[in-house]
Design a protein that fits this description.
The chain has about 190 residues and is α/β, with parallel strands linked by helices. It contains five helices and eleven strands, in the order E-E-E-H-H-E-H-E-E-H-E-H-E-E-E-E. The strands form two sheets. The chain has a nine-stranded mixed beta sheet.
């Protein structure tokens, strides 16, 4: 069944946080050239931080991130944090096991947060995260720093993001990966 949602209004009462979640190379890339993500699975094969997934109720991603994840699906089982919402101007004709949203960004965040069932909404992808940060829709940023230098690829944020002040509140190391957590100052 193909699901496309064009909008939804909801209040923020009782909803989890909106968290930008990403793995990043030490030189600041979240994907290598051609959106390659295989290097991430070299380091995050195991669930090094199970508390993050336990707190996640839904994910919101852009179409580019969704397409990159589909290319990797032969090696990886896909998303693991509840229902997945893909915000796009051009939903596909065939169903793909996710919900496509064609609404405004704030409506997409509200829709996905409501589906998260009181847990956190994870935002994945550089463009989607940058847009959410610019609009003041993000509560926290969570970064898995992976001990690799990629040299090129997709940067942590898109150009033109502007200044976003963050407050560090946690850092944890598990194996070779360090998880950094920040609150977004509003």
């Amino acid at each position: 069944m193909r699901r496309i949602i064009t909008g939804m209004s909801d209040t923020d009462a009782g909803l989890g946080k909106v968290v930008v979640n990403r793995a990043m190379s030490l030189d600041g890339f979240i994907a290598g050239p051609d959106n390659a993500m295989d290097w991430v699975f070299d380091y995050l094969k195991e669930d090094l931080f199970p508390e993050v997934m336990a707190a996640t109720g839904a994910m919101l991603i852009g179409r580019g991130t969704h397409e990159a994840a589909k290319r990797m699906s032969a090696e990886n089982t896909g998303y693991d944090g509840g229902p997945v919402f893909v915000l796009t101007h051009r939903p596909p004709d065939e169903p793909e096991g996710v919900t496509f949203l064609t609404c405004d960004l704030a409506e997409a965040v509200a829709t996905a947060r409501a589906a998260a069932g009181g847990k956190n909404l994870e935002i994945l992808g550089a463009d989607m995260a940058s847009q959410c940060l610019q609009r003041g829709l993000v509560d926290e940023v969570l970064v898995y720093v992976v001990p690799v230098l990629l040299g090129d690829g997709v940067r942590f944020s898109t150009s033109g993001l502007g200044r976003i002040d963050l407050e560090p509140f946690s850092n944890t190391q598990s194996g070779p990966v360090t998880m950094l957590r920040f609150r977004v100052r509003k």
